[in-house]
Design a protein that fits this description.
With about 375 residues, the protein is an alpha/beta fold. The protein contains 12 helices and 12 strands.
Length: about 375
């Protein structure tokens, strides 16, 4: 089987053809397929009509509609798992795992990393230190978390469902990174969301950092919660657990992790100083959000009303509602669109917060 890589796709674009047709004897890598479709090329899979020796052919645009791809068999999966793109991703996952370990983000065998490979997902194995992984340890799973490729005795991470919850809701996510960096995890254990409007780089490249309620690591419930948060946030604190980030590459996902922990460490140090810090002025914050928008990085705060964007004590470190219960800028419209279960969940958490507050006042 021939692997049609991104370099082959670049060469095909130069032919001027508007349709790329291939049979079972060609495995098109995800990056090659993306490059073709982004340039308006129709990619058609025809297992029964093309002769075995036919590797590619050009037809006028619209000559024939794309046909549904046949189910992928074991041979095709193995070919993809051992393709140049997969090998590069496996090496990158190992490199990023080592960087996480060097920065003390993962203790023991903690943490996990994954990367999208077409309709499949490469991920780290369970029970292995992220600082000492090798490419042959990396596993391949389907969209349900079932392992479909990888060498024994390595088995996929037990928390892959958390990653898949993000991938399902965020098509742009190409990689997910989960770790236990000390400072950010301390915020998660304390039940505190990092405040906003303090550091420009954090605002542009990460944005708001929500606090997800605790559920069993790797459980369907945790997957669902992360899926709700991920479309609006690239870095999420997992209460009593750690941090999970997603990015448009393996390194991008790792960058979000590094920025998040450095920010939490910076906040902790700043809070020890005698003077109170000042938030970035609201008009300057709106300039940052505009620059972020131009970079193609949307932010949920773009529609926040004046006077509310940067309100509050920057070092108060007051526990906040889990972000999945916070209403977006639309406010009433968002509540009107909420499902009964979402409203019930919101009411239960608000009630819990009120009772907790009343309990503290009675103790005083």
């Amino acid at each position: 089987m021939k692997v049609f890589s991104i370099s082959d796709a670049e060469a095909f674009l130069k032919t001027g053809a508007r349709e790329f047709r291939h049979g079972r004897n060609i495995m098109v890598t995800p990056s090659a397929r993306d490059l073709l479709t982004e340039n308006g090329i129709t990619v058609t899979f025809e297992p029964d009509t093309l002769p075995p020796q036919d590797e590619l052919s050009a037809e006028p645009a619209g000559a024939s509609p794309p046909k549904a791809a046949a189910p992928v068999g074991d041979d095709e999966i193995e070919a993809l798992f051992n393709s140049p793109e997969a090998r590069a991703l496996k090496q990158m996952i190992c490199d990023i795992g080592h960087r996480c370990w060097q920065r003390d983000y993962n203790d023991g065998n903690g943490g996990n990393i994954s990367a999208r490979l077409g309709d499949w997902f490469l991920c780290t194995p369970t029970g292995v230190s992220k600082g000492f992984m090798r490419p042959e340890m990396i596993c391949l799973v389907d969209s349900e978390g079932n392992q479909v490729a990888g060498q024994a005795p390595w088995t996929r991470t037990s928390e892959i469902l958390s990653h898949l919850g993000i991938y399902r809701e965020v098509p742009a996510a190409r990689s997910v990174c989960h770790a236990h960096p000390v400072h950010a995890t301390a915020f998660a254990v304390a039940g505190i969301r990092p405040p906003q409007c303090l550091v420009p780089e954090v605002e542009i490249y990460v944005g708001t950092i929500p606090l997800a309620e605790y559920k069993m690591p790797g459980s369907p419930e945790m997957s669902e919660i992360l899926g709700r948060l991920a479309p609006r946030h690239q870095s999420i604190l997992m209460r009593n657990h750690g941090v999970i980030t997603w990015g448009r590459s393996v390194e991008d996902a790792y960058f979000k992790m590094e920025i998040t922990d450095t920010y939490c460490r910076m906040l902790w140090v700043a809070a020890q100083l005698p003077s109170k810090g000042a938030r970035i002025p609201e008009d300057e914050m709106r300039k940052l959000l505009e620059r972020k928008r131009k970079l193609g990085l949307p932010d949920e705060r773009e529609g926040v009303a004046g006077g509310k964007l940067c309100a509050g004590d920057p070092f108060g470190f007051v526990s906040d509602l889990p972000d999945e219960c916070a209403t977006p800028a639309a406010g009433a419209d968002a509540l009107a669109q909420a499902t009964p279960s979402e409203l019930e969940h919101l009411v239960s958490i608000i009630t819990e917060q009120v009772l907790r507050s009343l309990g503290k006042k009675s103790e005083e």
